[in-house]
Amino acid sequence: MHSPRPPRHLLSLQGLGKARIEALLRHAEWMRPHATGGSAMRERLRGRTVINLFFESSTRTRSSFQLAAQRLGADVLNFDAAVSSARKGETFLDTFHNLQAMGADLFVIRVSESGALHDLQSHVMPNVSLVNAGDGRAAHPTQGLLDMLTIRQRKGTDFSALKVLLVGDIKHSRVARSDLHALQALGTGEIRVCAPDNLLPDGTELTGCNIVPRLDDALEDVDVVMMLRLQRERMEEGLVSSLDDYHREFGLNTSRLAKARQDAIVMHPGPMNRGVEITDAVADGAQSVILQQVSNGVAVRMAVLDALVNGQI
Ligand code: CP
Fold this sequence. Notes:
By secondary structure, the chain is an alpha/beta fold. 35% of the residues lie in helices and 14% in strands. Strand 1, helix 2 and strand 2 form a beta-alpha-beta unit.
């Protein structure tokens, strides 16, 4: 039997399956020693062009895709929407077609419209790949992968015994969606979710998750605590009455964290609203792996670019 054809694009982790996710994580682990520099990987994308096409702001994702592409030897173009002809009214599609006409092997794209990259696929030339760097509230697959890599490094490769808690603005979070897809694919023992009612998604997205309304209860005995940013830019007015109230009910502080397992790790995809979803003491404390997540971002993005262009996963 033939193994399934490697995907040409990475738009979501939904449906990717355990074997492919684990293969990407192993590939990222193999690349990790080269993620901080050196020339050992520079032949892998030599002569290829990667275009970072970001229509929403980013620190971690855009910078780490740039470093990842450079460390693989690619030419990298960082499109700056703020000084582009998008400001004169040029459409996203026209912008994409024009950049594609300049010669590109791979586009890394962030947009505010959920699902926009799925619609773009029919406009992509053969041999050009797309990577979703975050589309609205829908998906952020490389964040999901780097989060899984961080959990594996701290807790081992068997997720079946793990209790993982996601806290906060699940409804507007593409990170939460990609993490949930990955955690489910990897067979996580228990996925708990804690959020105000109006920041939980509608429908069936949390099927299989254990929803625990009070953070003090939700933290009991968990191995991993993933704090999520309040996505105020994607919210209708009035969803959160006050940031102080939110912090009181859903903010992670040191005394609350003591309810989790003693060796629990604290994660946050960034950027953090310090003093809202997480205190400084926790964000910068001994159980925080937040900067390890960021470091893993470069290795994961090297692995994804390499896998899509060289077709090894
Ligand atoms: N985690 C994340 O996507 O961060 P940026 O918005 O800074 O890229």
